[in-house]
Amino acid sequence: ELDQFFNGKLLGFFSFNPDEKKIKKILAPFACGKLFLEISSNQQKKMTIKSYVIDYENEFFLLPVGLTSQE
C-alpha cells in the first residue's frame, strides 16, 4: 500500500537510534526487498550508518549489506 502510494519508487526506510520495537514494525510484507538504514550517533557526535535489505525466509529479517561511495 505504501509502495503503491509512491508508484513503486520507494527505495527504503531509515530510523535514528531505532529500538527493537521500531525495527519490528518495519519487518513486514510491504517493506520486503527495500533498503533499511539504521542511523545512530555516539557521545562524540560521530554518526554511523548500518545498511540492510529487508528480506523474508520463513520470517522477516534484516540482511546486512554494504554501502559504497559514488565519488
From TrEMBL:
This is Uncharacterized protein. It comes from marine sediment metagenome.
